[in-house]
Write a structure and sequence with these properties.
The protein is mainly α and 309 residues long. It contains 12 helices and no strands.
């Protein structure tokens, strides 16, 4: 367990925050250590809740308990976005926890259930992340940032969102596998952080790629599914016709989804499917009839309008 006897004897609040953040970083040295710490502190807190009124606990004992809970809460926020038991911490530790979360200037990441309200793709925002000196904490923040951004992107562009989600999972799995290695060095941590930052940059590029194609952000989602389907089923189709087809698909989807309950009405969904099949046939897409093509285009259409309200 972390030994931090002088936590509340430190001179300044800044030193106390640094101490708390270093403790969080230490717990992340390996996946096993993080897992054991999270489980042990949870059990400790549950036991303490049963006897917290006992006079046998000194103020120092309580400070230890609340400190460990604060470390666990920060790790929870880095991964889940919600810190448990904050209300039950003593005032000093609760204030430190809130300060530690805000100290990196990216506290908006942890607003559970809310849309990201800042431009996470801006150079200024990335500078804030790059300024974080604790590598494991930086990786956790980048992971959560990417996860939120990909989830938002997936609501409009399912096919590309899934691709980015798979790439994120691959990097995170690599990070977790490397953390099991005792020879895990800071250079490896830096490499993982760089991969995550690069993935975020590529997501930004992908989100803006429609601008040079003469289509809008939502039409690009239909273009991507048409492109992915042609690649999956190995048939050629002219790019200019694919762009025009994506525009026409969006017009049909917009028309059919003007009713607020369209997704719950089988008659409207059936009409949408018929119109899409007729449109695809008009454009000769695909050149040879493939039933799965219609299914995948329809799924993208329904996914797009589900979140577009």
């Amino acid at each position: 367990m972390i030994k931090q006897k002088t936590l509340f004897q430190l001179v300044s609040p800044t030193e106390q925050l640094a101490c708390l953040n270093r403790a969080v970083e230490y717990v992340q040295l390996s996946e096993e250590l993080e897992r054991r710490f999270m489980a042990a502190v949870k059990r400790m807190k549950q036991a303490f809740n049963l006897c917290s009124s006992s006079e046998k606990f000194s103020d120092e004992d309580k400070d230890y308990i609340h400190f460990y809970c604060a470390v666990r809460s920060i790790l929870f926020k880095l991964t889940k976005g919600d810190a448990p038991d904050i209300e039950q911490m003593n005032a000093r530790v609760r204030k430190m926890l809130e300060g530690a979360i805000q100290s990196d200037g990216i506290e908006e990441l942890f607003e559970t259930g809310k849309h990201i309200s800042v431009d996470i793709f801006s150079d200024e925002y990335m500078d804030k992340i790059n300024a974080i000196q604790l590598p494991n904490t930086k990786i956790k923040i980048l992971q959560r940032l990417l996860s939120q951004a990909i989830d938002e992107f997936k609501k409009v562009n399912k096919i590309m969102g899934v691709e980015f989600a798979d790439r994120l999972k691959k990097v995170v799995d690599e990070y977790n596998n490397r953390r099991r290695d005792e020879a895990y060095a800071n250079e490896v941590l830096d490499d993982v952080a760089e991969q995550l930052a690069q993935l975020l940059s590529e997501l930004k590029t992908e989100k803006n790629s429609f601008k040079n194609m003469g289509i809008d952000y939502e039409e690009k989602a239909f273009y991507d599914i048409l492109k992915a389907v042609s690649k999956k089923f190995e048939f050629e189709y002219p790019d200019d016709k694919m762009i025009e087809l994506s525009k026409r698909i969006k017009l049909i989807v917009d028309d059919k989804s003007r009713y607020t309950d369209w997704s719950a009405r089988d008659d409207i969904k059936a009409n949408l499917q018929v119109d899409l099949i007729l449109l695809l046939d008009e454009f000769g897409y695909p050149p040879v009839t493939i039933d799965d093509v219609y299914k995948e285009v329809l799924e993208q259409a329904e996914n797009f309008k589900k979140y577009a309200q």
